[in-house]
């Protein structure tokens, strides 16, 4: 396999992994409420999904490091097919709850293996000094393109499906299940992986806790990884502030919930396009800034200014408010994607293949932890003092997180000391 072939496959898998998420995202809440769920039940179903994902992040990352990337990605795709097929036919709260559990398992399983597969493959072809930024940037861009295409298609599909044939709001998750089935085929047949030693399931499961423990110790023990985990948590705060407060703000500006829903779908699609642009621009940003760490500072500051502009323009109404909110949303995702892509590169450069997926899962868990903290604080803050104050708080968190990249420690290097040994050395 050539580097170009590996990149093409990585981009395709990245696109297919996130296309089902985009397809179901635009109509998920409407589907649940139209089938009789209250908003409280919808919130509980979504919370269960988040809890399952967070709980399984590290174990599934360790499983990918032990079993291999392809196996775990294939299982993730299978869970996605089952989850979205069940979602399309769900009529009760418990069916939606089970669908949420299956989606959470699928999401946790898909967190990291595709990127780890690409990095390991490229290292095998070009060596450890291979430049990861261009490939990771294209993979990140394809994820954003998939979300953009998916949310637009998912939002428009119910208008095109005859109600006599299928319940219109069930069409997007059904199409998402088909896309996940295609992903399953691609992973099985187009992602070759070096053979692993044949081991029993019991022996594999015994290795997972040790792998997880090693990855966590590595993330906590290496200075550069500690900072990257903290930056991921700050990103979780920023993203939560957007997902929590933007829909209500747009509904207020548009005049009705229905128009606000359409406005949010359009703005979200533009945001995903901005995310794709940010991923594509990340290598250039690092080059112009002089290093990946300085490029991450630029992206983080841009994100902070964008959230700040949401706070500053919260008093605007009508078209001016819609345009300013949309521009801030798009610019925010450009900045977050630049910083996120460069953080991903720095993370992969600081670990070995043995802990790669576990450490990236630790980063994903840190991001979700930041989101949980924001959910517990920003929602009540917005309720008491308004969205502008909550956004201002998120902007300050983002601005403070830019300091994490100043004088960024170098990643562990040297053939005599592995990253795991470096972690033990740093931890005393």
Describe what is shown at a glance.
By secondary structure, the chain is an all-alpha fold. It is about 80% helix and about 0% strand.
Describe the structure.
- With 428 residues, the chain is mainly α.
- The protein folds into 2 domains: 191 residues, Growth Hormone, Chain: A (Up-down Bundle), CATH 1.20.1250; 219 residues, Growth Hormone, Chain: A, CATH 1.20.1250.20.
- It is built from 16 helices and no strands.
- The longest helix has 33 residues.
- The chain is globular.
- The two termini are 42 Å apart.
- The relative contact order is 0.14.
Summarize the SSE layout with pairings.
Elements: H1 3-25, H2 28-34, H3 39-67, H4 69-89, H5 93-110, H6 113-126, H7 133-160, H8 171-190, H9 201-221, H10 223-254, H11 257-289, H12 292-312, H13 318-349, H14 356-385, H15 387-401, H16 419-426
Any key phrases for this structure?
2 domains; Growth Hormone, Chain: A; 16 helices; 82% helix; 428 residues
Radius of gyration: 21 Å
- Strand-residue proportion: under 5%
DSSP helix fraction: over 70%
Span between termini: 42 Å
**CATH level-4 homologous superfamily of the largest domain:** MFS general substrate transporter like domains
CATH topology of the largest domain, which one?
A: Growth Hormone, Chain: A
């Amino acid at each position: 396999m050539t580097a170009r072939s590996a990149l093409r496959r990585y981009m395709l898998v990245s696109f297919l992994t996130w296309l089902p998420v985009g397809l179901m995202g635009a109509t998920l809440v409407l589907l649940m409420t139209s089938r009789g769920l209250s908003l409280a039940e919808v919130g509980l179903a979504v919370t269960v999904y988040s809890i399952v994902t967070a709980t399984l992040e590290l174990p599934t990352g360790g499983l990918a490091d032990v079993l291999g990337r392809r196996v775990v990605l294939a299982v993730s795709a299978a869970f996605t097919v089952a989850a979205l097929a069940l979602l399309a036919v769900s009529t009760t709260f418990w069916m939606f709850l089970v669908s949420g559990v299956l989606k959470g398992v699928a999401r946790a399983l898909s967190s990291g293996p595709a990127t780890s597969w690409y990095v390991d493959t490229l290292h095998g072809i070009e060596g450890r000094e291979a430049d990861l930024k261009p490939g990771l940037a294209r993979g990140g861009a394809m994820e954003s393109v998939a979300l953009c295409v998916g949310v637009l298609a998912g939002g428009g599909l119910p208008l095109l499906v005859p109600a006599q044939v299928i319940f219109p709001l069930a069409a997007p998750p059904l199409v998402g299940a088909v896309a996940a089935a295609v992903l399953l085929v691609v992973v099985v047949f187009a992602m070759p992986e070096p053979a692993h030693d044949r081991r029993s399931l019991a022996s594999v499961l015994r290795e997972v806790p040790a792998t997880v423990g090693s990855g966590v110790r590595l993330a906590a023990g290496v200075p550069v990884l500690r900072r990257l985990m903290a930056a991921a948590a700050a990103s979780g705060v920023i993203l939560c502030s957007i997902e929590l407060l933007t829909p209500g703000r747009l509904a207020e500006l548009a005049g009705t919930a229905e128009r606000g829903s359409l406005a949010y779908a359009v703005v979200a699609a533009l945001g995903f396009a901005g995310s794709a642009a940010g991923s594509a621009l990340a290598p250039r940003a690092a080059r112009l800034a002089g290093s990946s760490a300085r490029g991450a500072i630029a992206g983080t500051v841009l994100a902070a200014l964008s959230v700040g502009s949401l706070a500053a323009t919260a008093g605007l109404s009508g078209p001016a408010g819609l345009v300013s909110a949309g521009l801030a949303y798009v610019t925010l995702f450009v900045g977050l994607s630049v910083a996120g892509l460069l953080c991903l590169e720095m993370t992969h450069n600081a670990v070995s293949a043995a802990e790669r997926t576990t450490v990236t899962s630790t980063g994903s868990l840190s991001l979700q932890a930041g989101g949980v903290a924001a959910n517990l604080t920003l929602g009540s803050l917005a309720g008491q003092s308004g969205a502008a104050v909550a956004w201002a708080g998120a902007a300050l968190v983002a601005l403070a997180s830019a300091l994490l990249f100043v004088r960024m420690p170098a990643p562990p290097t040297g053939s005599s000391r592995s990253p795991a040994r470096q972690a033990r050395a740093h931890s005393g």
